[in-house]
Write a structure and sequence with these properties.
The structure is a single chain. By secondary structure, this protein is an alpha/beta fold. Strands 1, 2, 3, 4, 5, 6 and 7 form a 7-stranded mixed beta sheet that branches. The chain contains 6 helices and 7 strands; from the N terminus they run βαβαββαββαβαα. It has a single domain (about 5-185), classed as Maf protein.
Length: about 190
């Protein structure tokens, strides 16, 4: 059986992909995320997923390589990982009381074959007080996460509801990824 290569350093993705296979090697791509002009907010995740997978696939041509990227979008604006605590406060304030989209793009590569897809989940936040936001930022949890929150951690306390795949919000739509990998030839 060919190995499954995950082009990611994310501990959350590393854990989730093991639901699909124990025969997984995690290889961070180190690909710099610079968005070229002309790509929509919703197309960003697939674009970066492809770049990550492509970077790693050069060294693993016989294996199945999976690249992923997750973006949080509010009103067609991407809310990336926060630069600092002030930026985290601003992002969480924007999400407060609103519904946003979380899109995870995935790219599958084996040899010269490539397939990409995206999964979208809508997440609604309760209205948040400044004190709640500051207390959450003090945990440092939001500092390395798109949209400045982690649904799998204390950020879950802000979530009023979701429509779609929970694991997509964590960073890997495992059910869809498994089906896409099977259709792509991975067994």
């Amino acid at each position: 059986m060919k190995k499954l290569i995950l082009a990611s350093a994310s501990p959350r993705r590393r854990e989730l992909i093991k639901l699909i296979s124990d025969n997984v090697l995690c290889v961070p791509s180190g690909e710099e995320e610079i968005l070229p002009d002309g790509i929509s907010a919703s197309g960003t995740a697939e674009h970066f997923a492809f770049l990550k997978a492509q970077s790693v696939a050069r060294d693993y041509r016989e294996d199945f390589v999976v690249g992923c990227d997750t973006v949080v979008i509010l009103d067609d604006k991407i809310l990336s990982k926060p630069f600092d605590e002030e930026d985290a406060f601003s992002k969480l304030s924007d999400l407060s009381g609103n519904t946003h989209r979380v899109i995870t793009g995935c790219a599958l590569i084996k040899g010269d074959r490539v397939q990409t897809f995206s999964e979208e989940t809508k997440v609604e936040f309760y209205p948040l007080s400044d004190e709640e936001i500051k207390a959450y930022i003090a945990t440092k949890e939001p500092m390395d996460k798109a949209g400045a929150y982690g649904i799998q951690g204390a950020g879950s306390l802000f979530v009023k509801g979701i429509q779609g795949d929970y694991f997509n919000v964590v960073g890997l739509p495992v059910a869809r990824l498994m089906r896409e990998l099977k259709a792509f030839g991975y067994e």
